[in-house]
# Entry
Amino acid sequence: MIRRPIEPLAWSVAGLFVLLLAASTLVLASFLASALADDWPGPLRMAQLDGHATCLEIRSRAPEGAWVRISGRPDAWFLPTATLDASHPAGAWATLQLRDGRWFCAPQLSVLDQGRPVTLGFSELRDWMNSMAADRDRLRRQARDGQESSAQEYRRLAAAESSLRLRLDGTGQDVSFSDVATLHPPAASFTARLGIFLANLHGHLRSPSGFPAALVGTALTTLLAALLASPLGIAAAIWLSEFSRPGLFARLFRRSVQLLSGIPPVVFGAFGLVFLVRGIGSSLGGGLAAPSLLWASLTLGLLALPTVTRQAHLSLQRVPSHLREASLSCGASRLQTLLRVVLPASARGLLSAVLMGAVQALAETAPILLTGAVQLSGRAILDGTFPFFHPLGGFEHLGSHIFYGLEQLPPGPSGAGMESLACLILAGSAMGLRALAAELRHPRSPQ
Amino acid sequence: MALGIAAHTRRLPWIPESLQGVLRPIFVIFCFLLLFSLMSLLPSWHALPPPPLHSPWGAGIAISGFLAPKIAARSLAQLAQVPSHLREASLSCGATRWETVRHVVLPQAIPGLTLVLWELFAWVLGETMVVLVLFGASARPPWNSGTLGTAMTLGLPDVQAGSAAEGTLVWPALLLLLFAVLAQLPGLLRERKL
# Structure
């Protein structure tokens, strides 16, 4: 009998690896579904909260009550069963959003024209609002073109519109007609829910802080960290590879870079906060004395520095020595050899080193939590006011977004939508940048 | 480490490299979702003791899960240092790839693999975010339920600059730095010897 060679360890681990990949793919898919489901409007109810009738959207139910949120707002809170029982189902009610972002819902809408209620069906009301908006736009255009009669007509229409109010029958509330931003049909049909979903998504993306701010914060910290680490790291690698003489100093330098790359990121964060922000920042004063995007980028730059140096050093060492020798024997100086031969030959590897540094800066959260990342900064880092870029003060980051979001997530099946999306973006960017770095480092040979 | 050995046996060095940095954020949220699904399975979760993941054991499992690719890559690097002529000699004598790894490569690489395990201790000690996400920042007072890193991340931003509390919280950073250096020193000394 022939004894077949078996590789039990190799096969079992390969199986485990396949399982791990499958699980990761499933998790990715659930992230995406969760991100979409989180903003999908749930059933509506009207409840009396603090003496006011409030339109609530039910996210998830439990025996003791339900997690609810005001339609269009991201935060949810728990409502006990007793309060929920006293509320009215509002599944077939119309929803409207004001210009300040508040949402209301009502079974029936009436227009209050000088105190007299005129009840209109939903489609009638929407048609009327659309025709009014079209008239207003037409008159404004004509007034801008210099037609005096149109300007007078526009002013008359605007005055009439500002005196109109919209009454939300059954809730005891009324709102100014000119404050209404959007009107949604009763959220019973799929298309109606899709409309509210898209409006919510648009609201998320337009808000000055929150998810878009976290995206901008992440991109800027990663970019700044890579920009800070690249020149220093590549210069150190060039010195090590091309100009250093074998000896104690060069050996110590190389070992220090190796040691630095093994230090936990949180130590860099503590260094950034205590030494950079509270030490150097406080002595400089002003906005620099507090944690900010600038200090966080500097800390991440220091964190990425050993990686950039090591990778750049490896790519410079991969340049065949006969190229250097040929250049030197032709009479070129060491600097000329570096600029004309070594750097062009290792350009892809150096770019790969910078990308690896950026991946490291992108993936770390602990250092930025210590050096300036906050839950909600309430301000934009990039905006239209001079100097357009505001790196001082707290900022938002996808990593901190995930951390704070998961911390405040209500227990229950309602998914961590935006956190999952943030995780997906972070993982996808890290994967993409790493793959690009690997491709640059080891280019495929042409067939 | 087994993943590293498997990748070495099947000549798949891209496995640990592709796993590194990709699985970490996924793994964190995966553990978190698992935690919540476990909680929702229990009838009244707040009245019962915390589910298994919300404990040092759970955090340990999570840390070991995402450190695995890093260890695999380091193990692979150590296995690659074994001279190739030993491998070739074994294969030319008729041994299979697995037999070569089991009887030739692994015995030669044991010192290097021991160093990887030694480095692992420093990585586990320095891990912060997974523990923080699993335990939550709301559990501030019992810092003993976290790690040195979580104590620093939660405590340092809130303490006054120059206060005694700041000094106390800077000590873990120095301790972690010392551990990291101590964990890497044997590797550096061995590299010099080779």
